[in-house]
Amino acid sequence: MAATLCSKLLPKQGWLPLTQSIRHGSKAVTRHRKPLHIQKQKLLAVTQYIPPAREFPPGAYPSQTKHVQEDNDLTLLMKRELKKLFEDCKMIAVVQNSSSSAEDMMTLRHRLYKHNITVKFFPNKVVRSFLSDSIYCNMGLLFVGPTVMFVSKEPKVKEMLTTLRGSPQMTLLGACIDNTLLSAQGIVSLSKLPSMTVIQGEVVSGLSMLTSHTAYLLQRHPAHLSQLLQQYIKQQTSDGSAEAAPKAEEAT
Q1: Are strands 180-183 and 147-152 parallel, antiparallel or unpaired?
Q2: What is the pTM of this model?
Q3: CA 20 to 30 Å from 21, out of 28, 34, 108, 244?
């Protein structure tokens, strides 16, 4: 009996009820908000509430005015020394000191002093402050970290590079030589050029060779000299006629 009632009341598989509830969606909104009139928009813009600026307590934000700190007497003394150094010395090299010991630094200073090259120590902050107001402002980028300066009144590039080869903890960053800023590679290229004494000797030897050859020709017999001059005139005339022939052909 119970099984019969359950089979009649419970829906069978694949059976659909006679009535179904269908939920219709909401209708589309056909009324939209009309734009405000231009006069009303202006009135709302004019009468809009603007809150007053909030006052912050003093010291909450950093001051916009920059405080210029004046240099003390020691800084001014270092800047005067740097100015004199740049005026008197033709070579000023910047070298980075990578954990060099005091004994190695003393040995390096002694080797450089043999070639009239002096080692100078200045704080990077003072050097950058001095260079920012001078024509050497581009050198300020080299003074980062532990640095030292090699200065000499005359350019001693070869001697400086030869001495630095024995100190691997010292790295050459750049130099100002004869008012010209050079990189490390530029300094190496400059060291490969012959010195001014060698160039002057080559020029003098070339000029003396020409003058000696002219004097030798003048000491020869006048007939030989006149023969050479006639040969030179013939060469000049033949070259001139050869150049004039193509021009005549083009004109015809």
Answers
A1: unpaired
A2: 0.55
A3: 28
